[in-house]
Design goal:
Elements (H helix, E strand, L loop, with lengths): L1 H12 L14 H6 L7 E3 L7 E3 L3 E7 L4 H17 L2 E8 L4 H13 L4 E11 L1 H8 L2 E4 L4 E3 L4 E4 L4 E4 L3 H14 L7 H9 L3 E3 H6 L5 E2 L3 H8 L3 E3 L5 E4 L5 E3 L4 H9 L2 H21 L2 H17 L4 H20 L6 H15 L12 H34 L11 E4 L8 E6 L2 E7 L8 E8 L2 E6 L10
Parallel strand pairs: 2-13, 3-4, 3-14, 4-5, 5-6, 5-7, 6-11, 17-19
Antiparallel strand pairs: 1-12, 7-10, 8-9, 12-13, 15-16, 15-18, 16-17, 18-19
Helix pairs in contact: 3-4, 3-10, 4-5, 6-7, 10-12, 11-12, 12-13, 12-14, 13-14, 14-15
Amino acid sequence: MRALSAAVVAFLVLAPVFGVMAFGGEDLGLRYCGEVVQLYGLFGESEGFDRVVGPRVYSIRVEGVIDYSMAEYISLAIDRAERDNALLIVELNTPGGLLDAALEIVSSLSKAEVPVVGYVVDKWAESAGTMILVASHVAAMQPGTIIGSLQPIQYDPASGTYRPINESKIINPIIEVLCEHGASRGRNSTALIRFVLFNDNYGASEALKYGIIDVVARDPIELIEKIDGKVVKLPSGSAVKLELGREVEELQPTLRIRILHTLSDPLLSGLLLSLGMLVLLFSLVSGNPGGIGVGALLLLLGLAGSGFNPNITSLLLLLGGSILLFIELYTPGFGIIGGTGIVMIVLGIAILPVGGEGFSVSPGYAKQLLQSLYATGAVLGAFTGFVVYKVMKVRKRKPDTWTIVNALGRATEEIRRGGEGFVFVEGEYWKARSLDDLKPGDPIIVVGKEGPVLLVRKARRDEGGTGA
């Protein structure tokens, strides 16, 4: 990796023409994007403007894999910034992610009515992260971070393997997106194309030198200071001037976004898929309905983390949980079937789409529904925990085995010492061998048992007898 980075840097240093990284003497930017004029993005203070944005500054942090939850997170943050006429800073620290999710984010950026700053922090913004960065109205990087490697790959979450994709049917649309949403913002079109075709990578200073980004800043405050007072032209047609304060408010993701983003980790989603399939298979073979519910739950969560539509996943979780609770009503006790059903319903409601277009519920209704379900789940969970505690307590006790030794009774006939006769003990007649001389009606106590014959003696007064 270090040798590859050194080769890339050496090539860039020796590039004969500033801003043009040609391959084989050909200007790739001109070939794929044509003559590009900067229409949008960051301009100087002297440019005319239609309105002012500020002084509020919001930020969100996109960490890990780019997935549909991050697309939703950015969309919600843009809506909030538009309502409050605020600048939005999207901090990127990502190795990449889903192409469709990245394209959704690019579309949200193009429709935004306030400037959005893409800001690479900590480590990198590779692949889909680079696409989001160059499509932002203002592109910035922290010193020491890198961008690049935009060639798409096909990833198999079950096996963890991937292969690069070179088909023009997929490559060309990505290049066109970079031309339309990156080069139009003044980005170096040739460098953008090389991100896809040759997986080039750039550090912050290189990216600034070759016109890929607008600003290098150590932290959000320095970033704000460098762009404050500048004019940003938006794809919507308006030009806005930035008059920014120095306080940055971070917008936190919703519970739905947190859950979906956690599940999107490739290792976790692959593990959930594998476990779900195994549990489901063995449960079907063994006829264990509780295991079938657990397997279905793991499988749905793994699918959600692999890019399956989260709204459909939510509906399937609600439906599956309801079915399991219905089954639980007709089975004795409260066990794994009912517990799995409750977990399914809670997760299904937690990832319900809220406040969007099409299938969604209002934020107020979702909050009230989720709180009600949490309360119900807490009560049922507490009851289940109490039952489990009592069962475990009983299981830990030593078993109480019945024994006839020390039981009291009476002789029914005269029995000589060492002889045998019949006695009445515990409501039954027993054959017994006596250690004392007994008369009919004498109280006796059982001191042992040899096969079907009891060993008895005369009971004393302190043992419940009436004799001496």
